[in-house]
Write a structure and sequence with these properties.
Glutaredoxin, 4 strands, globular, alpha+beta, four-stranded mixed beta sheet, 2 domains, Glutathione S-transferase Yfyf (Class Pi), Chain A, domain 2, single chain
Length: 207
């Protein structure tokens, strides 16, 4: 059985959604719920980052894009990755774009002290503001560059779809996109309502 280490309102929601789309058994381990779970995560992933996925054979995968690619290749019937090689390449490109640009900016916004040796509060706030501006600009570029690769109503959502739907929930991104890329914002809301994905998202972001 797969074991997914994460906590609510985190990037682990994308992997949980992908596992549901694959139709495989898994156990979600909330690393904020107990010291034992947090310690176990540290043993599996020295950076203590989530999501971390332990595979049924005991091996460990970290990094959201790598996990999603693994699941897409292991369970091709899930359609997490497109069958067409050209479309698959673009889906992988989109996932790498998200984790490279969005995760990096979110790290700055949430933990500015990690990028500062010494700083006053004004410097800290300036860094956070710059990180948020960079994050929002990255999502504008994503909306412009990758909209053709995204889920349509007559298709199954893929790995790129679930990753975008989850990572846009932080640092005011959705509200920013509501005004700057309304079509992309409407697509995100459609993904939120997908009958397979909605219960997963509701567990992480209760109404």
């Amino acid at each position: 059985m797969y074991q997914l280490y994460g906590y609510p309102n985190s990037g682990a929601a994308a992997i949980e959604a992908a596992l549901v789309l694959c139709g495989v058994a898994f156990r979600f381990i909330d690393v904020e719920a107990s010291a034992e779970a947090a310690q176990e995560l540290g043993q599996l992933n020295p950076l203590k980052q989530i999501p971390t996925l332990r595979l049924p054979d005991g091996s460990v995968l970290t990094e959201s894009a790598a996990i999603l690619i693994h699941l897409g290749l292991t369970f091709p019937g899930s359609k997490l990755l497109p069958d067409n090689p050209v479309d698959r390449d673009q889906a992988i490109r989109g996932m790498v774009f998200i984790v490279t640009n969005s995760y990096a900016a979110i790290g700055v916004i949430d933990y500015p002290e990690r990028w500062l040796v010494q700083a006053d509060e004004a410097t800290r706030q300036n860094l956070v503001a710059g990180g948020r501006a960079r994050l929002h600009r990255s999502w504008e570029v994503f909306a412009d560059e990758f909209s053709a690769e995204l889920y349509l109503d007559d298709e199954k959502p893929g790995a790129l779809d679930v990753l975008a739907a989850v990572i846009t929930r932080w640092a005011g991104t959705r509200e920013h996109l509501r005004h700057t890329r309304p079509g992309f914002f409407a697509w995100l809301e459609r993904i939120d309502r997908h009958p397979t994905l909605a219960p997963v998202f509701a567990r992480h972001w209760p109404a």
